[in-house]
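Problem 3 from the worked examples.
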Amino acid sequence: MMEMLKNAKAVKADISRLTEQQKNAALQAMADALVASSDAILAANALDLEAAKDSISTVMLDRLRLTAERIEGMAKGIREVAQLPDPVGLLLEEHTRSDGLLIQKVSVPMGVIAIIYESRPNVTSDAAALALKSGNVCVLRGGKEAFRSANAIVNALRAGLQQVGIPENAINLVQDISRDSATALMTANGYVDLLIPRGGAGLINACVRTATVPCIATGTGICHVYVEKSADQDMALKIIKNAKTSRPSVCNAEEVLLVDRAIAREFLPKLRETIPQVELRLDPEAAAIIPGTPASDTDFDTEFLDYILAVKCVEDVQEAVRHIAEHSTGHSEAIVTRDKDAEAIFTACVDSAAVYVNASTRFTDGGEFGLGCEMGISTQKLHARGPMGLRELTTYKYVIHGTGHIR
C-alpha cells in the first residue's frame, strides 16, 4: 500500500500539468482499451458473480454484473468525459487593487484522490476518467465482491494510458481488500489529498469517523416521494414505479412514500396494483387501507436497496417536510403536485442535495445532470453537494502578480 501511495504522489505533478489535448487523448485510449478487453473483463466478472451468488441479494448481484453492453456504456461514459470542458486552469475571479497588485483565483487539481467503493465495477472506470480529466491521480479501493472485475478494468485503463505515454500510476487499484487497507487510505496524511467513500451507510460512516485526511460523505440515499393531494395520480404512480423499481439497488432509488391522507383511500389501492412486486411497509393509517407489512420503528430510517418501500400518510406538505427533515439523508426528495403553493413550500424547505417537482429521484446522477459521469453523490454541504463531476474534483489557489510590491 505505501509503495502505491508513494508512486501515486510521485506522478501527481506530472498529471496536474497535462494539457487538455493530452488528457482527452488518454481518455479516448482508455475507452478503446476497455472495449478491447471486454472478454477478459467479463471472464473476471463471471468469477466475481460465482463467488458472490450465495452471499448477496439478487438486486446486489445485478449491481455487480457486467455485460458487453454495460462495458460499452462505461466506455461511452469515458468518451463523454473527454468531450467536457477542462476544469483545470479556469480563472474563477480576479481583481486589481488600487496599487496595481493583481489577485487571481485559479482552479487547480486536488492531487491524489482515494475512492473507497463497494460492489459496482463501473465506478472503477467512472472514477478513473473523472480523476484524469480533472488532473488528479486516483487510488481506487474496491470491495471484495468486485475485486477481479475492478482489477481487469484497471489493467485495461492503464494499458490505454501507456499507449499515449502517460504514467500508468495515474490510475491505481489497491490489491489488499482487507479492512486494514481501507483504514490505511483513511489515514494516509501527506499522500491522499481527498477521500471519497462510495457505498452503503456502514462504509460512509466508517470513513467519516476514522478519516484523518479530507473526506466527502456521499451516497446513502433514504429518498422520499411525496404525493400531495392535488397530484395527478397517474403521474404519481408512474414516478413511484420508476423511482422504486427501475433499479432498486442504487442510492437514488425511492425508499419512502408519503401520501396526503385526503387522497390515501383512493391512491393507495392503485399503488398496490402498480407495484405488486414491492413489499410495502405500512404505517397504521396505510395498513388500514391496503394489505402489507406493518412498518417497524426503523423502516423510515432504512436504505433498503431492494424491492421494499416504507409508506406513511401525512396531513399536508408541512408534515411531509417535517418527516423528511427528521428521516432523510439529504440525497434526493420529490413532490408530485399541481399546487404551486405546496411546490414552493417543498422546494424551499426540503434541505437535500436534489429536490424534484413532478419527476423521479432516479435522475440524481452525474450523467443525467450533464456531468458525463460522477464520482459519487455528495450529501454534505462543504465544497461539493449532489453529483460530483469535474468541477467538484478541483480546488483553487490564488496567483498574485506584482511589480515589486511590498507591504
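Problem 4, a separate protein:
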Amino acid sequence: MNGRVAIVTGGTRGMGRAISVDLAQKGVTVCAVYRSDEKSAKETEDVLKAIEPESFVLQGDVSSQKAANTIVEKVYEKLGRVDILVNNAGIFDFCYIEDMTEEYLDRIMAVNFKSQLFMIKAVLPHMKECKYGRIVNAASISGHFADCGLVGYGASKASVEMLTKIGAGELGPYGITVNAYAPGIIDTDMTHEMICERGDEQVRDMCLQKFGTPEDAASLVGFLASEDAGYITGEIVGVDGGMFKVQNAYLAHVRASEETNKTL
C-alpha cells in the first residue's frame, strides 16, 4: 500500500483515528477529515506525521456535496491522487418514533448516509481516471438488526448497506471496489454512555463476550482497503464479536467456565 493516498472522514477520533493510524502504518498517506474537535485533530495529525510525514488533517462538514467536493479537491491538489476513501464519519443517538423531529431525522441521515454518497461522488472522477479505487463505508449492526429507539440511526445505516451493494455494481467497471464494515458495539466516546447503561445486558448476546476496540475495526478496514481485497466487493462485513449470531451465547461461556473450574 506504499504510495497510496486515503481520505478518512471522521478520521481523528475513536474508530476513525484508529483507521487513520492503521493505514499510515501500512505506508498510506492519510488525510483525516474532522468537523469540529480541533484538539483531537491536532493530536491525530502529530501521530500521523510521525508515521507518514505527508499525512495531514483537514476540517470540513461532509454532510454537504459542496464541502465534500472541496475536501477531495484539496487532497488532490496537495497529493495528486485519491486511491482510498473510508467513509467513517457518523453520529449515534437514541430517539423513539413519537419523539422524532424532522430536524433530527434530516441530521442523522445527512451525516450517516448522505455524506457517504457525497464523498463517493466527489472521489469518483479521480478514481475512474486511474481505473482503481477502494471505497470502504461505515455500516452498522443496527442496519440489519432492529433496536427500539434507533429507527433513525438504523435507517441511515440500512441505507449505507444498499449504497455499498449498488455502488459495487456501478463502479466495478472502473476497477473500484465498494465494501462496508458493520461494527457491533465498539468501545469509543460515542458508545460509552450506552455501554455504561446496559453493557452487561448487551455483552451476553456476543459469542466473544466482550466489546470491540477501535483497533478491531481498523484491522478490518485496512484489509478491505488493501490489494489483498481486490476481488471482494459489495460485502457488508461485521466486526461485532458475533453479536446476535446465536441465541444465548453466554451459556457457552458458562459451560467453559465450569470446565475450567473442574480442571483447577
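Solution to problem 4. The chain has eight helices and seven strands. The chain has a mean pLDDT of 95.
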